[in-house]
Amino acid sequence: MKKYSKLKISLLIFLSVFIFFTYSERVMAITHIEPARIILYVEPGDRTTGTIKVTNKSEKETEVKAILYDWTLDDNDGLNATIAGSRPETLDGLIKFNPRRFKLKPGKTQVVRFTISAPKDINIERRGIVFFEEETGLIEKTTGANVVTQIGTTIYLAPTTAKSEFKLLGAKVYIPKDRQKKKLGVLSLNNQGNAHIRYIISYKIIDEKGALVNENKFTEQVILPGFKRGVTFPIKQDLKSGSYKMLLSFEFHGTAKKANYTIPFKIN
Question: Could you name the domain of life of the organism this protein comes from (predicted)?
Answer without folding.
Answer: Bacteria
